[in-house]
Amino acid sequence: MKMAILPILTYSSIIAVPLFLFIYAISSIVGATYMYVPIEALLGISLAIFCISNGMEIFVYKGRTKNILRLSRTEVDQTKSIPAHLAGSKSTKTITLNIKRFNSKEKQLELHKYKVQVDKFTSVLTALLKVKSHSDGTLSIRCSCNMGICGSCGMEVNGKPVLACETNVLKNLKNGDEVEISPMTGHPMIKDLVTDFDDFFSKHISVDPYLDRKNKGEQYAAKEIYNQSNGDINKFLPYSYCIMCGLCLDACPVVNTNPEFAGPQALSQGYRYYADSRDQMGAARLEIMNTPEMVWGCEFAGACSDACPKGVDPAGAIQLLKFEVIKNSLMGNASDNK
Fold this sequence. Notes:
Blueprint: H1 2-30, H2 36-53, E1 57-60, E2 67-70, H3 75-81, E3 92-103, E4 108-119, H4 124-135, E5 154-157, E6 160-163, E7 178-182, E8 189-191, E9 194-195, H5 198-205, H6 230-236, H7 247-251, H8 264-274, H9 282-289, H10 303-307, H11 314-331
Parallel strand pairs: 3-7
Antiparallel strand pairs: 1-2, 3-4, 5-6, 5-7, 8-9
């Protein structure tokens, strides 16, 4: 019965809306105020017919004239929009989280196991928040946006550096129903899964991660637009997506063995600003990079690029910096007015 009525209502809405517009136009020309109520009523009827024909439901909030429309479709429409492999009930599964928590007093990692119920959409971060809310409120984690933008929830899942909010827990099960979670080992540990980023930010600052002009006052009161072609933008844009999550440092074997190495994040950002045509620091940037702690500390393992959740290629950026450093040393071609 419902399927037979819906097409009729759809055709009715096609007629009602133009009819409303026609009457409204006539009333505007005539300037008659007495048509206000019929027009308002017709608008409501037209809107109601349109909503019902599209499977929506209408509610009147406390008898007021302002209607609230439920945006969800009917059950028939929902099954059309959901893929076949996701249709059906939301089944759950109980898994074990093997969390290696850093004990700040004993200065060591301690294994704690927690049972948590998850479904096929549950992320590692959601599972950890369930543990913190229902099992152990002392568990320390760092998180913010829960959508892979802030980069706060970096940790190791089964030994791999990842963003917990973007990692599906059921896709990373080991031994049937277990997931191993630990803090990033490439950063100093503070407590449980929380790591210290002070050294990370210090290395980031060391490469002068900002556009630098010869005229310092110009940076705050520019008198012209710095036009860039698509080619100019494409030189630095792929490296500007860094969210400073620190996963690349955790994955880098050099950082884990040589704490003095600046690391892939800082160096990739150094190249990002060197390649920007608006920057006038040119040769001075390359002098900063030409040290064993900077570009020459990189062994091109490529693990940093594999770990990046945003597709930035720090390993490639460092190799480009090496080329620019060598070219500038041999030919002095690095211009401060790129």
